[in-house]
Amino acid sequence: MEELIRALPKAELHVHVEGTLEPEMMFDLAARNGVALRFASVEEVRAAYAFTDLQSFLDIYYEGMAVLLTERDFHDLARAYFQRAHTDGVRHAELFFDPQAHTGRAVPFETVVNGLHAAIEEARAEFGISALLILCFLRHLPAEQAMATLEEALPFLDRIAAVGLDSSEAGHPPADFVEVYARARAEGLRAVAHAGEEGPPEYVRQALDLLGVERIDHGVRSEEDPALLERLVREGVPLTMCPLSNVKLRVVDRLEDHNLKRLLDAGVRVLINSDDPAYFGGYIGQNYVETAEALALTRDEVVTIARNSLEATFLDDAAKAELLAEIDEVAARLV
After folding, report:
1. Are 150 and 109 spatial neighbours (Cβ–Cβ below 8 Å)?
2. Strand, helix or coil at 298?
3. Alpha-carbon span 81 to 115, nearest angstrom
4. What per-residue confidence (pLDDT) applies to 25?
5. What is the Cα–Cα distance from 277 to 252, expressed in whole angstroms?
6. φ, ψ at 133 (rounded to 5°)
7. Based on the number of CB atoms within 10 Å of its own CB, is 32 exposed (0-12), middle (13-18) or buried (19 or more)?
8. Do β-strands 215-218 and 190-195 pair in parallel, antiparallel, or remain unpaired?
9. pLDDT of residue 63
10. Marked catalytic residue, from 94, 169, 197, 198
11. Would you tell me how many other CB atoms lie within 10 Å of the CB of residue 44?
């Protein structure tokens, strides 16, 4: 099964580039930029990754970002992700990034985008991976700040494909961001949003109806609302699920308890992704391998999930068709 998983062409559509900051790189960048860390060693950093919920993770996640200051830093961060993704068979990635977490530290917006874009160009040439950027708004901050961030992004729309919504979900409904999403879509950007991870199924419904999103990031709790679940199946809404993240953040107690397989059996277009792999113990390949084992996924089901990932991308039809043809070839050879 693992040979099949690594070989399958796949897309990763739910990964926060800041969440790929490994402790070793955190220390390297801290030294390069003269940033003091409260941790004495890599081992001490990893020991701090004992999260009880989403907020306990976010606290250390934002703290770690302090080492990211220059274009070179953002380039090196993204390049390291692409190297790992390449070994996992990723052919296309749509990377979340959190500009407010950087501009709030006086790091210019263009520094972030230019560094990430340089790594994307290299990934295409060196690894054959295409990539797009998704600008995420921090939902724990006021919607007015999200709109200001969108205004900052306007000169760089040739490098940004979509907007998203992340950070603390509980108590921060999608309905708060209707205006900024409407503006983003008017500017030609696609739309996704985190919903139904810690927040209720109603947040999934709001993301679809009020924000006009095309994918739901996580969506684990959608199962609690039968009418919503039926709608997700009927409309073919992709759920970019992140199993190892859900276990690490106590959304589910054990991987064996995850509802991905039940949703797949119900006809929902589920995907497997890594979320913040440096913090949650596995990149996309590891998420596939451990989930397949824990939920007893068949080889055909693994192929279906990989196919779902390619079909749910924001690539044009020709690029999708090329990747889907590749997945058919691999499946015919290895299934």
Report:
1. no
2. coil
3. 13
4. 96
5. 17
6. -105, 140
7. middle
8. parallel
9. 87
10. 197
11. 12
Q: How many residues make up the chain in this entry?
A: 335
197 is catalytic: yes
Would you state the structure tokens that stand for residue 1, as one six-digit string?
């099964």
Burial of 122 (0-12, 13-18, 19+ CB in 10 A): middle
Give the residue ranges of DSSP H helices in the chain: 2-7, 23-33, 42-47, 54-64, 71-87, 100-103, 109-127, 143-153, 178-186, 201-209, 226-235, 243-248, 260-266, 277-280, 284-295, 299-311, 317-334
* pLDDT value for 54: 86
**Backbone torsions φ then ψ of 32, nearest 5 degrees:** -65, -35
Count CB neighbours of 129 within 10 A: 21
Q: What are the angstrom distances between the C-alpha of 84 and each of 113, 285, 287?
A: 21, 9, 13
CA angle 287, 293, 299 (to 5 degrees): 90
Please tell me whether the overall predicted TM-score, pTM, comes out greater than 0.85 for this model. yes
pLDDT score, position 281 = 86
DSSP 239: E
Kindly give the parts of the chain with pLDDT less than 50: none
Report whether 78 contacts 159 (CB < 8 A): no
Q: CA 153 to CA 125: how far, in whole Å?
A: 26
Distance in angstroms (rounded) separating the CA atoms of residues 137 and 252: 26
